[in-house]
Amino acid sequence: MMIRRLISAILLVLLGTVSLSNLEAHEIRPGYLEIKEWATDSYRVLWKGPAAGTMRLKLDPVFPENCAATDSGSTTATPGAIIQRWNIQCEGGLRGQPVAVDGLGSTMTDVLIRVEFLDGTMQTHLLRPSNPAVTIGGSPDVTTAILSYMSLGIEHIVMGIDHLLFVLGLLLIVSDRWMLVKTVTAFTIAHSITLGIATLGYASAPGPPLNAAIALSILFLGPEIVRAWRGQSSLTIRHPWVVAFAFGLLHGFGFASGLTTMGIPTAEIPLALVSFNVGVELGQIFFVVLILALERSFRVLEMRWPRWVELSPGYAVGSLGAFWTIQRTAMLFGVS
Question: Residue 152's pLDDT band (boundaries 50, 70, 90)?
Fold first, then answer.
């Protein structure tokens, strides 16, 4: 009962801070800027600007004054991104020079910058809205690259409201702590498998059907939560780890979209995959630990909640799952 009350409060906060019109997870993905030196002071630029459909965010790479474009480049629209390619010439090179992304400060996304020099050295930087510029140069720092990909993983699950609601739904069903460990572990193993498979290019799932299936997984938990509260039984209630594993495979493909849409070079995929997955797990663990810590605090404080608040989580999970399922299915068939 206490965890139900706790999750009631959390869900009310989530519902109060996120409007239904914006509850479309993973539509705004991180931007990706690749700068590759192919001749002395000459660079090929690849810019993947985040987009929703064909509408791109107003983000533009800004190079130092000693750089100038040498061609008009090309532009290609893809699902979730606008890809631009062009060449620049930088008198004296890019080392020690600032590179920024104009407009980043007014968004809620990040930009991953990867720089490869003619001598083979590589650098990876993560730009955030609060820090939209970086100075290029110095020796390659593997630690910086690892932390950048880990940060992307943490943000991917924290901003993925549908993934968090699925975990909340599991917490509403599972009351035994040992079973909770098994369930969360099964979910972790499952989405790690498909995250790896998708990132390494062995399998893929098209975005629209995948988003609809993820929404359906949340809708599925709604009736199961009500059954658990009524003391009824089902496969999900008896063996929640089985359901967590099955749906975790779907969610893993969703996590993978945070990496596969960037077009990371093959040589850097293993580092990116491991670091990103660690970030996802850290974010998930933090979320679960936060709930359990708050549960204990509420128990000590002996807080009391109205009956409608206690019942709201299960219906909220089911209602949001239904809303997303209908919305994403309509988008799948081109219904606006």
Answer: confident
Tokens representing 187?
Answer: 């979910």
**Angstrom distance (rounded) from CA 286 to CA 171:** 14
Tokens of residue 67, six digits: 């750089």
2 pLDDT more than 50: no
How far is 270 from 253, CA to CA, in rounded Å?
Answer: 17
Question: How does residue 217 score in pLDDT terms, banded at 50, 70 and 90?
Answer: very high
Per residue in 303-312, pLDDT (tens digit) is 676 766 666 7
Cα(60)–Cα(45) distance, rounded to whole angstroms?
12
Distance CA(129)–CA(159), nearest Å, equals 15
User: CA 24 to CA 211: how far, in whole Å?
Assistant: 9
Closest CA to 136 of 100, 110, 99: 99
The contacts of residue 19 (CB under 8 Å, 6+ apart) are none
- For residues 291 and 10, the answer to whether their CB atoms sit within 8 Å is yes
| CA nearest neighbour of 215 among 324, 331, 330 | 324
Strands, E assignment, the chain: 31-39, 42-52, 55-56, 60-62, 67-69, 74-78, 81-90, 97-102, 111-116, 122-127, 133-136
Backbone torsion region of residue 91, taken as left when φ is above 0, otherwise alpha when ψ lies between -120 and 50, otherwise beta:
beta
Say how far apart CA 250 and CA 205 lie, in whole Å: 9
Question: Tokens 């083979």 belong to which residue?
Answer: 120
C-beta separation of 249 from 213 below 8 A: no
